[in-house]
């Protein structure tokens, strides 16, 4: 067991954490029983109590079961942050089914993959996204889409600036296989007994891999419970804590820190559907927000607001997150303005958010943190698997209660993702790093070929696979390019077919990509080349293009 970090371990916390032997849904059930009239959610000035939240969750769970959803079935959740997202997530769990959180940026080709891979028959979707998923009804396994209109849960008298999706009139179209949220709720179904155990599957977030199509990370109720409980104790929360929820709930960090954690301890989540730095500041002041989990680019934008000084942010007692290293100058600005250190952490979809977090009393800048409760983390040689010592760079591997049990329908990739050390199964993160004498871990590079654009992970092979569907593309290589705002961005090096030369523009390629994939994956730079570099065996030499691109920017 790695114990070097015990010298800086928070004195008020135990080093091991006994997890509840119950399902994730049970957290809501218990909080609703303990704090029935306490506010669970605030959504653009409208409050939802724990009692009402549980009642609506149970009603939607009953509807899902009436539509044929059985224990272990997968249900797509394709929605932006909203009360309906929380209700849907917990309703799926209440029905003993498995949540498939889908990035709202995903489009046609990606949605087809999720439906096919999970055999999902039902999808709960936001109305702005329903048009992308509804065409799959009858053409795939998908049988029904329940459409939620966000504006039905806001305070109509709010003075807050509303995102277009929230301000939009409620869905009123007649589409075969599509029912409204209100219709589903009005059916008034009561769910059968809840039987899910800690060992049952709860959530399968998808993590793109180097082999192409996204792959599902299988998480049980136990692994989802682990990070929810860990977060509440590591950054102490009580029922009177108020969390600003700006990270998307489909992502494991937002799911854990801004939804599951607050529900476990009975605290309040102030939910934003879309990021807006002024609205965030107003909400912090108005609802006396105490905690805010975000990504670094969000914090940077927040602190860049020239009018930030006029808002009262004194209620905040924790700000932290990850996605990229926090720039020292920005961290200093945050400290000067709020008196708070930015608490950085590290985790993956495969680990249901954090395995490492900085101790709040002893944080280090641009640091992943230390292994949290019951996490055993090591650094190993990528090739020999030999364990490394302090200051030596290698691959970060982790064992802990929050680690995925494997990839959905991918036994070979599951086997390759783990290594045995000291009789324990460690997940290979694919990230290169090292730890110092006190057990703090630091990121150095990535073993895998991945682009990190503003905290969004883009896997070149996946984008290439989608782009090869374009009839004008003969060959394509996706690499990263330096970007002053995003850190790095996506670049496509393309060899056109002879028929397309001179007839296809970069704008044509970009426009097509926007229809086929999430916006953050779309190449912002398209370069046409005569040929792509290849090894003597014909293997694409992407690294040569990558190095050449970054040399141009230096």
Q: Explain this structure to me?
A:
There is one protein chain. With 554 residues, the protein is of the alpha/beta class. It has 2 domains: 4-380, ANL, N-terminal domain (Rossmann fold); 451-552, ANL, C-terminal domain (GMP Synthetase, Chain A, domain 3), CATH 3.30.300. Helix content is 29%, strand content 25%. The chain has 16 helices and 28 strands. Strands 2-1-12-11-13-14-15-16-17 form a 9-stranded mixed sheet, sandwiched between helices. Helix 1 (24-34) runs parallel beside helix 9 (252-265) and helix 2 (50-66) packs across helix 3. The longest helix has 17 residues, at 50-66. It is globular and about 70 Å long.
**CATH fold annotation of the largest domain:** Rossmann fold
> What fraction of the residues are assigned to beta strands by DSSP?
25-35%
Distance between the termini: 42 Å
The CATH homologous superfamily of the largest domain is named ANL, N-terminal domain
Strand order of the largest sheet: 2-1-12-11-13-14-15-16-17
């Amino acid at each position: 067991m790695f114990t070097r970090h015990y010298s800086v371990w928070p004195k008020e916390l135990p080093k091991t954490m006994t997890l509840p032997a119950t399902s994730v849904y049970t957290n809501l059930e218990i909080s609703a029983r303990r704090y029935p009239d306490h506010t669970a959610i605030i959504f653009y000035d409208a409050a939802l109590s724990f009692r009402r939240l549980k009642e609506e969750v149970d009603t939607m769970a009953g509807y899902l079961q009436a539509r044929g959803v059985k224990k272990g079935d997968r249900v797509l959740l394709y929605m932006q942050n909203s009360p309906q997202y929380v209700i849907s997530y917990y309703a799926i769990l209440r029905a003993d089914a498995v949540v498939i959180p889908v990035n709202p940026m995903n489009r046609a080709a990606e949605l087809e993959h999720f439906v096919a891979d999970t055999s999902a028959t039902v999808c709960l979707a936001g109305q702005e996204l329903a048009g992308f998923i509804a065409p799959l009804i009858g053409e795939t396994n998908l049988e029904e889409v329940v459409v939620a209109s966000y504006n039905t849960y806001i305070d109509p008298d709010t003075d807050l600036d509303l995102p277009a999706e929230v301000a939009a009139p409620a869905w009123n179209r007649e589409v075969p296989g599509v029912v409204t949220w209100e219709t589903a709720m009005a059916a008034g179904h009561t769910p059968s007994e809840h039987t899910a155990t800690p060992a049952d599957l709860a959530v399968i977030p998808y993590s793109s891999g180097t082999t192409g199509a996204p792959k599902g990370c299988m998480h049980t109720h136990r692994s989802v419970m682990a990070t929810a409980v860990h977060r509440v104790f590591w950054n102490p929360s009580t029922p009177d804590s108020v969390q600003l929820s700006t990270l998307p709930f489909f992502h494991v960090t937002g799911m854990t820190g801004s939804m599951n954690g607050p529900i476990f301890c009975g605290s309040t989540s102030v939910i934003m559907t879309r990021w807006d730095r002024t609205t965030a500041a107003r909400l912090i002041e108005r609802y006396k927000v105490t905690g805010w989990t975000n990504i670094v680019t969000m914090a940077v934008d927040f602190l860049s607001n020239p009018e930030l000084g006029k808002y009262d942010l004194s209620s905040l007692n924790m700000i932290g997150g990850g996605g990229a290293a926090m720039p020292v100058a920005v961290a200093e600005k945050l400290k000067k303005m709020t008196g708070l250190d930015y608490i950085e952490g590290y985790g993956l979809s495969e680990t249901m958010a954090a395995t490492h977090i900085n101790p709040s009393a002893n944080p280090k800048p641009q640091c992943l943190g230390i292994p949290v409760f019951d996490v055993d983390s090591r650094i190993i040689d990528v090739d020999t698997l030999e364990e490394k010592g302090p200051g030596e760079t290698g691959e970060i591997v982790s064992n802990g209660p929050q680690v995925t049990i494997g990839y959905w329908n991918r036994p070979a990739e599951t086997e390759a993702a783990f290594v045995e050390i000291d009789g324990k199964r460690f997940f290979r993160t694919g990230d290169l790093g090292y730890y110092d004498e006190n057990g703090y871990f630091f990121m150095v590079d990535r073993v895998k070929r991945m682009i990190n654009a503003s905290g969004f992970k883009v896997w070149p092979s996946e984008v290439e696979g989608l782009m090869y569907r374009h009839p004008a593309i003969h060959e394509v290589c996706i690499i990263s390019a330096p970007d002053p705002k995003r850190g790095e961005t996506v670049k496509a090096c393309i060899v056109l077919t002879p028929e397309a030369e001179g007839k296809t523009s970069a704008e044509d390629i970009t426009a097509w990509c926007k229809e086929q994939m999430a916006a953050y994956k779309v190449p912002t730079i398209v370069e046409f080349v005569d040929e792509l570099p290849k090894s003597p065996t014909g293997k694409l030499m992407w690294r040569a293009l990558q190095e050449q691109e970054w040399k141009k920017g230096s």
